[in-house]
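hi!! sorry for the late reply, been swamped w classes. u asked for the two structures so here they r. pasted raw, havent cleaned anything up. first the sequence of the first protein and right below it the tokens
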Amino acid sequence: MLENLTDYAKQAVLAAKAEARFGGHKYISTEHILLGILGDSNGLAAKILNSCGIDVNVSREHVMKLIGIGGGCVGLSCEDLRFTYDAKNVLDFSLKHAKSLGHDYVDTMHLLLGLLQGTNGVVTQLLESQ
């Protein structure tokens, strides 16, 4: 599932894991993936959002308010955290989008497309709020 990621996409997924851990969550959700994407202003997805008038810093604050602080994951490393069902679907959708575009890699743009297709609509809420 995580093979074929570009360096930016790998960085976004690692950042998602770190966001989950830092936020005290015992899982990696679609919101964490979005935070991972928003955390790198050099990534293609962040550039796309910026070009659409989406302020990445405001968006990060909005998402962090949505997910809140978890109950804690003391003693858990990032490797112990698991993706939620929806987050796994986003990763699957991202790979499908990449393949449909003829790409043999998954970049942050594909992760963003996967989030837009995802069921919980965090990205849609974010886009509508700005």
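now the second protein. again sequence first, tokens right under
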Amino acid sequence: MPTAAARHSSNGLLFSARSIFHRFLRGWTRRQHARQQVKRQTSGELLEDRTLLAAFTVDTTADTVAADGKTSLREAIASANANADLDTISFDSSLAGQTITLSSGVLSITNDVDIQGLGGGKLTVDGNSQSQIFDIASGSTVSISHLTLTGGIAKIGSAFDNTATGGAIHNEGDLTLADMELTGNHAVSDGGAIFSESGSTISLERVTIAGNTSDLSGAGLAAYGPATIVNTTVSGNSAKNDAGGILIRNPALITNTTITGNRSDSDGNSPNRGGGIRNGGGAVLTLHNSIVAGNLDGTGSTASDIVNVGTIASAKNNVIGDAATSAGINDGTDGNIVGVGGTGTRAIGTILDPTLMVTDGVRLHRLVNGSPALNAGSNALSVDANSSRLQFDQRGGPFVRVSEGTVDIGAYEFINFSVNTLADETTNPDTVSLREAIAVANATPGFDNIFSLPSGKITLTQGLMSITQDLQLSGPGADVLTIDGNSQSQIFDIAAGSTVSMSGLTLTGGNAKIGFGFDKTATGGAIHNEGNLTLTDVELTGNHAVSDGGAIFSELGSSLSLERVTIAGNTSDLSGAGLAAYAPATIVNSTISGNAAKHEGGGLLLTAKTTITNSTIAFNRADADGNASGNGGGVWSDSTITIQNSIIAGNIRGTGSTSDELNLTGTTTSKNNVVGSASTTLDMSLADHGGPTRTHALLPGSPA
């Protein structure tokens, strides 16, 4: 399978999940033939006559036929047309991120060919708003994959003229599209993106058809021949007449597909035309495991999901948003979910995210939490055109099609991943690293992403890991999994608005070493937190910050909860070597030990409301450089703090042994605590005493 290079997401900061997993399914069939590499020879000539199958590699974005030592897409197609056998056209990797803009009109395909793009939105063919992109002749068998088609326009002629139908593709052959996007295309007649003629066939798998328009019908797809549509998204297309999304005029199978946000009668001249699907006269529709919701008719907000003039042969396990335009598909029958209990219109935001988002290089709609589509499909019906069980959702591998026992309805499958490598990498197609898993979570907002982690040690080699969306990391235990910042970077940066929990791991070697003051890169050696963070059964040790928060820095506006956490042996050049909390914090059954800050708060620096319960704060040091620049060896607080059932002992300031347990200038509530000398209270050694993290044992006769 191909390996995709790492790329950034639309905000320029986050890895695309495409660059993360490198396992996108390369087409949905692979034909094995002997191939002969053939080079172009002279200007205007086709490649030499052949009787063997041939493979052509396009290595220029120019739309030319020229003796320039390069092979253009137009030249490759012309050469394939000259050979009666199936040929393959691929693209040199140097074209990644580029666009082939047509300047010489439509690309006509008259013989069998397999065109394989670069995938992940990496290569675009643009009709330049001057012509259609592909015209596929009758009798040809064509497959096209891993391309984006845009700017195609069928603008000449009327009604069913070839040049008026199919803005991106006019098909009269047998066409398979896989791992494609068609967007921003237009037709003056039917088929804003694709027109498939009577007598042809078309199969779509893992295709996004979005934002196309037509002056007549089928802005996304007008299928006058048999059609199979699987794992596909049809979204935001607009037709002036029938079928904003899909016009069907022959047998059609639609499986695990999402059809939403499309509009029919966009000029308001002829109502009730079928915003999502129009199943025309003579058509026979089979609709399984699909979402048809949030589609409109007219210029306003009139819901219109399906208009049926033909026959619906089978409709099972679908979500239809509007009961009045469900084409007779009934709620509660054959696993169908229609409207709200069979009446009215279900708000699209309760089913899916109405915004097309890029996930793993693919634009599609993600299901929202609580969506009726979650685990509501039929596994038996989740099959492709060959009746083979679907392995992946629209994004391809490794996004399995059934992740929790029962397939989700629509093109998207909600998935929780297991991290299965200790390597800090993004290039191995056979493994999922922690960095990769976090990037997936960042790309899927609104979900409870839960990742289980392996035993061993993960040493960071690519810098800190930024978490921008809700995430739960579940490790096997602090004694068996360590994540090491390698003394080169912080470990986690948690963004505002995110809710993150971590358990069963140790964080060490984190280093916030760049900047000063409250710079993000200077605070929080292991964790810089601006979100809502919960740590359970976690140990943080051997981390450092050049400013506050040797182990953890919790920013204004955040929240922090620690339970059964040990923070030990961390350092800071300013304050709060164990924890610097500028936002509310809760600390329960935790140990803060042996941390050293050059200024205030050797163990804890607390400037917001904090509750400490059943915890031990011992052997921490403030003013660790002896410059008389800080106090509060155990705790420094200027806010409201409640301490109960806790031990605060053996904390000091300066380079000697001056006792300094607490420096509290705010409001303090203290109940049932032991404060003072550690010599009769605690064993100074941190050790395994049967809990999830290391703790201090009580000495015989301890007042605690």
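hope this helps!! also noticed smth abt the second:
DSSP finds three helices and 69 strands in the chain.
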